[in-house]
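Lecture 7 notes: from sequence to structure.

We start with a single chain of 354 residues. Read the sequence below before looking at the structure.
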Amino acid sequence: MPTPPLSELTTRARDIFRLVVEGYIADGQPVGSKTLAGRGGVNLSPASIRSVLQELQDAGLLAAPHTSAGRMPTDIGLRLFVDGIMQAAEPSAAERMQIERGLASGGTIEAAIAAASSALSELSAAAGVVMVPRREPRLQQISFVPLGPLRALAVLVAEDGGVENRVIDLPGALDPATLEQAGNYLTARLSGRTLAEAIHVVRSEIDGGRSALDAASADLVQRGLAVWSVDAAARPVLVVRGQANLLDEAALQDIERVRQLLDELENAEAIAGVLDAARLAQATRIFIGSENRLFSLSGSAVIASPWRDMDGRVVGVVGVIGPTRLNYARVVPMVDFTAQSLGKLIGQDGFSRI
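Now the structure, written as tokens:
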């Protein structure tokens, strides 16, 4: 169901909708008409409020989990609230200090991302997550060493002296000259580039017929790239802190949902996929409930922001995972501030890269 525009809501309906969402975010409980009638700013009888609540429910913005139990926002309702109603509150001086103090406590980026995850967890009362690619060295050389009739060892040397090896299967018996040609071709195009950059260049040349390689050498290059591509896909480092924060009093009333969320948090590869969707975003991304397939069963939300180095290149993603009743107005600016702080930290003296 598409989200109805705010312009279709009357001022009265908008005010009541806002109060329901804010009440649900505050304590995780459905909000009833009597509760709303007792709050300031709603000059209506409980019967009139119930009529408005029903209109909002018919529009798909609210749901009634139980008869006479009040209303709570749907995923669509929360999206409307986040995009059009909530007013973000900048992190307080104490919150900013807590985040910055944690980031500055270690001498490596590994320590910093762990501290960032912990700080977000404590401040949001949810699970803090930080994803960063493993070290992306600039490459210097690649060579193929025969291991037998149908196997070879692909040896990759980085500019910093690091060496990584992978065994690859050959399409058939290849002579040393073919192995050397493939290695020389890759070295010429990998030198000074990261693995991701090199793979893009080489594949573009081969697919476009511009490689000047014979069929055997081209096939060997493709096999070598396939091995390194799989390795690159497994490179992200994910740090998750504060899962215990998800077990608050409201959550324990829906223990099956919490169990599902904790199970999902164990799937590091899937979480990395969710966070990766925020890597190219210009600002903080918010995924609410069923908007993301991974967390749709647990009814959870993800708030994530990319963080960049001093040159503006995306380094990783930092965020929070928790119930859909996250305090978005408070947590979104907090995640954004943490991302900015991590970016500033990268270029400072005394901190080593991953």
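The radius of gyration is 26 Å. Keep this in mind for problem set 3.
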